[in-house]
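Per your request, structure below.
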């Protein structure tokens, strides 16, 4: 299967930074309201909200998160179709376990893979069968033609 217009390291990093800032501010404000602290030290429902953001937003928004939408890239399956919940579970949760088990070494390897590979796919892309592209989602009219 061929990847179409893959997004490289810097644009993906920019999207991750935008998402990180957004999630930190929103959850910080919620933490301030709920716990009286902007940064809450323990695990809480806010951690679940953060997880749900990264799992569900791409499923319901054609592979975009706010950060990815801001920089014009999105996550797609290898056949170009939209991601599913199972795809995002593999991409975020299962690959997160791989990254944790390797004590972050796989994160460094993934960064080099995105920077150096022609298809710009990282370890979590291989686990989930995805890639990040500049291609916009297809409308229902385009699919029927």
């Amino acid at each position: 299967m061929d990847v179409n217009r893959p997004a490289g390291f810097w644009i993906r990093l920019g999207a991750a930074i935008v998402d990180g800032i957004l999630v930190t501010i929103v959850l910080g404000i919620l933490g301030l309201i709920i716990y009286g602290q902007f940064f809450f030290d323990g695990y809480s429902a806010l951690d679940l909200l953060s997880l749900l953001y990264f799992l569900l937003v791409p499923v319901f928004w054609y592979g975009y998160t706010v950060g990815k939408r801001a920089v014009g890239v999105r996550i797609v399956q290898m056949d170009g179709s939209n991601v599913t919940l199972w795809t995002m579970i593999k991409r975020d949760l299962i690959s997160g376990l791989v990254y944790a088990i390797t004590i972050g070494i796989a994160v460094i390897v993934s960064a080099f893979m995105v920077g150096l590979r022609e298809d710009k796919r990282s370890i979590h892309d291989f686990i989930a069968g995805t890639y990040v592209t500049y291609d916009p989602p297809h409308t229902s009219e385009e699919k029927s033609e």
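The chain has one domain: 9-139.

Regards,
D.
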